[in-house]
Write a structure and sequence with these properties.
By secondary structure, the protein is of the alpha/beta class. The protein is about 30% helix and about 25% strand. The structure holds ligand PMT.
Length: about 280
Amino acid sequence: MNVNMWSHPTVQDNIRKLRSQGVNIIDPEEGYLAEGIMGKGRLAGFDKIVESAVKLTHLQQDLKGETILITAGPTCEDIGPVRYISNRSSGKMGYQLAAASQSRGAQTILVSGPTHLDPPAKVELVTVRSASEMREKVLQNWSRSSILVKAAAVVDFKPREFSAQKIKKNLQGRCLDLVPTPDILSELGRQKGDRILVGFAAETEKVLENARNKLKEKNLDLIIVNDVTQEGIGFDSDANAVTILTRDGKEFNVTKRSKREVANEILDYIVALKNRHG
Ligand code: PMT
């Protein structure tokens, strides 16, 4: 294309959007353009195109033979027919993990709380609403999975009782009686066997310390730490930045990039663990 077309803000916005959705783009190259001027716009060399395609195809193979169970999105704990308790999770991180896992050859099961996202192609989607439903569907699919990644933001508390009618503001007390929801990841940690178990931690304070405790208490192989106080990452954004903590005390920082790229970084660590497990 012409250099002015390539550098146009609308084209660049669209390129950024596609990249954030995990599309691989080979940039045009610099050189003489059809108009006789120099600039960025020439079709990339065929060697470069072939090399990029081969690289992608290789990426697709390293999870072949694995069945990965991924959870995504929030849960919703209904108070009554009108209101519910939930959180700010959009599901984007978990959906990108599922898309990346599928494209790297794994059979991928995505257990998702309510989101507005389209499921990635060829991924087995199981939709749920509450933490209890998520637990039930995860346990149903657990025995055929070799790897579990729990990116869902499960609500920790639900109302003790479901009100069959809408609670009127002037008729009821202002306190909600809450009880804990099942801690799905802890339950899986107690029966993980030789599966690879990966959790997420969304933290606002003592970020690494709290995440390390979760890694240990939930018997995980890896925990992906999200500092959700930072702007432009974490909940509902297209980008993320995380720290990956391992069981043997190692710590890796993944700087801000698209959620698809973060997903692939996480899968790289999982592949490395898998190879070590034999
Ligand atoms: O969905 P996005 O908008 O893309 O945002 C991504 C994200 C910030 C939601 C995600 O990256 C993330 O951090 N997910 C985990 C959020 C969370 O619930 O963290 P937690 O620290 O409360 O829970 C720790 C782990 O235990 C998580 O893997 C969680 O799935 C699991 N858990 C928690 C409670 C519970 N009752 N059962 C669980 O299994």
